[in-house]
Amino acid sequence: MVELLENFPSYVVAYKASGIVDADEYEKIVMKRVDEVAQKYDAINLIVRLETGMQNYTLNALLDYLKISFKHIRRWNRMAIVSDQKTVRLFYDALSPLVPGKVQGFTLDDYDKAAAWVSEPFLTDENRMNSPKP
Question: Which of 103, 126, 116 is nearest to 43 (CA)?
Answer without folding.
Answer: 126
